[in-house]
TrEMBL record:
Compartment annotation: Membrane
Residue ranges annotated for the Band domain, each copy included: 24-189
Domain of life: Bacteria
Pfam family, one: Band_7
Name the UniProt record assigns to this protein: Prohibitin family protein
InterPro entries hit by this protein: Band_7, Band_7/SPFH_dom_sf, Prohibitin
Membrane topology: Single-pass membrane protein
Organism: Maribacter confluentis
Length: 271
């Protein structure tokens, strides 16, 4: 019984050591993550092998594993930039990105775990200042927001692709102009809209007047043609036809007493 404690203590100590070693030798990579292996007694960061994927891994206890999020992520950035005429513009943008999976080791080795602050955000700021500086406040307020969004994306992507970052999208969420400039632009847009509306009314009125003129001219031309075609002989024949039709009516009594100046019969009564 006296020897049991002497045997048990080393065994307990050995068990504790084994548990520590085992815990140091296992790594679990979560969903949407990947691990970069660092060999302490080797060449350091492993860049010539694919990173560790999701799941359970056993590594030497003296090595380290750095875990990265490899799913698409979003980062927000608010910045002050200058327009082409030097006015201060507030730009609210976000970026969708993810590290390139097969180059994760190089990203860790060259940029580190805070690569978003070191590489991505400074590049977005630089691209935004460059792009917004090409446009006036009026263009930023109205028609050019989609254009600057696309240009910021292209300029940022061109740089970060060489930095092992995959840029998926840049979203310009808000462009804030100085209040006085915004009011001036809105006033100008209202005036332009009113001017366009006035021009539309003028064009509509002109077209309506042209329509009335054309209709009147058509009627005048028709009457002139009709007058030119009605000779005395045609009028006399039409009068005779009308008189004959009237005399054939059962409800009409016609007394013909002679001819008028035109040679047509005279109707004295119809009762």
């Amino acid at each position: 019984m006296d020897k049991l404690p002497k045997i048990a203590l080393p065994a307990i100590f050995a068990l504790i050591v084994l548990v520590i070693i085992f815990s140091k030798s296992t790594v679990t990579i979560g969903s949407g993550q990947a691990g970069v292996l660092y060999r302490t007694f080797g060449d350091g960061v492993v860049t010539d092998e694919p990173p560790m994927g999701e799941g359970f891994h056993i590594v030497a206890p003296w090595n380290k594993v750095f875990v990265y999020e490899v799913r698409q992520q979003e980062v927000f950035e608010k910045m002050n930039v200058l327009s082409s005429n030097g006015l201060d513009i507030k730009l609210d943008a976000s970026a969708w990105f993810q590290p390139k999976f097969n180059e994760l080791g190089k990203l860790h080795q060259e940029k580190g775990e805070d690569y978003v602050q070191r590489v991505l955000l400074p590049t977005i700021r630089s691209a935004a200042r460059s792009v917004v500086g090409r446009y006036t406040p009026e263009q930023l307020y109205s028609s050019k927001r989609d254009a600057i969004q696309a240009e910021i994306f292209e300029e940022t992507k061109k740089i970060v692709e060489d930095e092992y970052i995959q840029l998926n999208e840049i979203l310009v969420r808000d462009v804030t102009l100085p209040p006085t400039i915004k009011e001036a632009i809105e006033r100008k847009l209202r005036q332009e809209q009113e001017s366009l509306e006035y021009e539309f009314r003028l064009v509509t009125a002109k077209k309506e007047a042209e329509k009335v003129t054309i209709e009147a001219q058509g009627k005048a031309d028709a009457n002139r043609i009709l007058s030119a075609s009605l000779t005395d002989k045609i009028l006399q024949d039409k009068g005779i036809d009308a008189t004959l039709k009237l005399s054939e009516s059962p409800n009409t009594k016609v007394i013909v007493v002679g001819g008028g100046e035109s040679g047509l019969p005279l109707i004295l009564g119809n009762n």
